[in-house]
Amino acid sequence: MGWEFWSKQLDEEELVADGGYDEYSAGSSSRAAGMNGSGPTKLVDPLEDPLPGVGTYEDFNTIDWVREKSKDRDRHREITNKSRESTVALLHSVSDAFSGWLLMLLVGLMAGSLAGGIDIAAHWMTDLKEGVCLIGFWFNHEHCCWTSNETTFQERDSCPQWKSWAELIAGTAQGPFAYIVNYLMYIFWALLFSFLAVTLVRAFAPYACGSGIPEIKTILSGFIIRGYLGKWTLIIKTITLVLAVSSGLSLGKEGPLVHVACCCANILCHLFTKYRKNEAKRREVLSAAAAVGVSVAFGAPIGGVLFSLEEVSYYFPLKTLWRSFFAALVAAFTLRSINPFGNSRLVLFYVEFHAPWHLLELAPFILLGIFGGLWGALFIKANIAWCRMRKTTRLGHYPVIEVLLVTAVTALIAFPNSYTRMSGAELISELFNDCSLLDSSQLCGYKQPVNTSETGVDNNLADRPAGAGLYTALWQLALALIFKILITVITFGMKVPSGLFIPSMAVGAIAGRLLGVGMEQLAYYNHDWLIFRGWCSPGADCITPGLYAMVGAAACLGGVTRMTVSLVVIMFELTGGLEYIVPLMAATMTSKWVADAFGREGIYEAHIRLNGYPFLEPKEEFEHSSLAVDVMRPRRGDPALAVLTQDSMTIGEVETLVESTHYSGFPVVVSQESQRLVGFVLRRDLLISIDNARKRQDGIVSASLVVFTEHCPAQPPEAPPPLRLRGIIDLSPFTVTDHTPMDITVDIFRKLGLRQCLVTHNGRLLGIITKKDILKHMAQIANRDPDSILFN
Q1: Do 643 and 672 touch, CB atoms closer than 8 A?
Q2: CA-CA distances (angstroms) from residue 262 to 19, 110, 288, 300, 652?
Q3: Residue 161 — pLDDT band, cuts 50, 70, 90?
Q4: Comparing 684 with 436, which gets the higher pLDDT?
Q5: Would the keyword Transmembrane helix be found if you checked this record's keyword annotation (predicted)?
């Protein structure tokens, strides 16, 4: 029962609710008949009178990219030809050309607004776990103390308007009882938020859980998952994302924001016929929406476009590049107007330091890259093993209990340590921060210089010896690192919205900050060593620990996701430091090489394979020397291929064949004896056309001939009228010969986005290769279970 029942049930509801796809039902067919004003006597040829539902797809099917692109070209050609005839048609042509840009504007505005709302709500609810503002419960801690005149510089976080739960319940802020009250309230709020999140996901939108990026990659490759980008998913994901982030779980909101932006794009596509009726055009918009998601998550429009191009998109023409850039720009501008953090920045952990780095520091940067690669590879293996256990054992049947247990453990361990208690974004902000003279943070607990001449120049403090405060902070950070590494493995993949960017960056930033402080102390006490001589004199600011944190964050995120170019650009846009591009590039490339040595898959590809989605990875090489005849069906010993003949089968025979098989399409041949190929017809189109003809065309019975040719064969006078279906047949299906090498066939499938390909020998049909056959064959070569590809 469990989870599968919920997702199946919701699947069926979403299928109806999602709209934009004409469902195959008797109702729609007869309604269309009424609208077209065609009575039951007219002979119908689908070529002249397209039926509703013909050319659409079933759930969990792959779209035919070639057919969708040619459909769009025909539509465009028709509009262009008509535009020369009248002014109205010309205006229609202009509006059609402009509709893509208008859609991008709307997607940017909607996604930017939602992201701003999510940021503000998550910030407020995170602070709600620790206390409440008396002048207005809707103020978070920082906003509450902004207007106060009673804050001191040393204790800038405490003001009389903000009360912790201990002050409200026990009347005191100090002592063991107050600590216990705050501890228990923290756990209570964390459990409440996570319980609400998992219950809402489970009850209303099972598709709102997880990061969403693996499924979006699959959808962009041409797969259809109805309801995944529907309105319910959008509403529930937006609400539960705030709850999940606020509960203190080790997850981020960056991945889910990509899903939210894609939901916005899919819903807005229904306003424009061009995108509503064409699956390939819709995927161009979704590619741009993925860029918008990263743009609002990190305040990095260019990084977002590159992320979409490098990481999620399957088909990314130049036109989509420009539109993605425009949409990302609009979204970033919208978020900037909302100003969720009140500091004119788009993210919480924006930093601005311009301290120079030395060439010798590349060695520790590369060390961080190695750490990031090792952590990425180990994380992927551990997380996939845990998720597989969740799928195959009873654990998967109790998602609510699992979420509550993980939240309870997280809250129990996180509260005593101030670095795990704060949200992931605040932690990264703290670690990226460079210490100034007036910093009250524990990470800046250095011993103060005796005379002021040692304070360096340009407000950059000279390297100083570590004090007791810094040693305490380093211990806490080391414990936080171990905790984050272990808890993130279990958290990612639970039934709440969960991103991976922030936890990965937090792990890397902690490791980087620890190494940075270590390097700083090494240079302070040993500036006469050969490696420091010449560039690190006493009283100079040689090492910036915040920079190491930044490089470590990039390295760990690169190790987990295998992003390269887009990651460097995102980090550069985050920090505004052009001079740090080389350290970031060195660490990112090292982490990718090290992680690739353990396995070529990033976390998203690994989750795609775990879920069995039919996704042909463009980055993966096909190195086997098999031929098309080895992969095609039917194999030796299998029953013959199910085919239709062009003019010798009756409707009854066709229906019997369709009902006795579960294939999504059938090759059409000249005759059963010759097996010469004519074309290919889709099961869905065939059923809709036959069903429609029975209702709208007189004399169509089971004995009527089904004709796929232009001219009907001669029939006896008493025979019932034939059913002409030339309009639904694809007369130019992709074919390869039986001796085509499989690496070429796989390339054809990837580059053209094919669903199936027919195999011929001297023009005679031998068999068929589908996308699933290729994936099964690749799984067999890699010694994996080939039946894991059957997602539906």
Answers
A1: yes
A2: 16, 11, 8, 17, 44
A3: confident
A4: 684
A5: yes
